[in-house]
Design brief:
about 80 residues; mainly alpha; 2 helices; about 0% strand; elongated
Length: about 80
């Protein structure tokens, strides 16, 4: 039972780290977008909130892709054994 709880905790920690790193990566990429083409005032509060929400949403989607891919590889490993 102890090994299961430890593994479950490590999986949770790994998921949090992947989620935060994915959001950070997307934030770095979104900073490079020329927002003047989308907004009249790209530094307004509304534009900043939209960029923040877009960053979190895209980062979450990317993290879910990575975590599901990781889960599938673990399942395949148990299938082969």
């Amino acid at each position: 039972m102890g090994d299961f709880l430890r593994m479950n905790g490590l999986t949770g920690l790994f998921s949090i780290v992947v989620e935060l790193l994915s959001i950070l990566l997307v934030w770095m990429l979104i900073r490079e977008v020329k927002w003047e083409t989308f907004f009249h005032f790209p530094n307004s509060r509304k534009a900043q909130v939209l960029k923040l929400l877009l960053t979190v949403a895209l980062g979450h989607l990317f993290a879910q892709f990575i975590l599901q891919y990781w889960n599938y590889t673990v399942m395949l490993k148990t299938f082969v054994e």
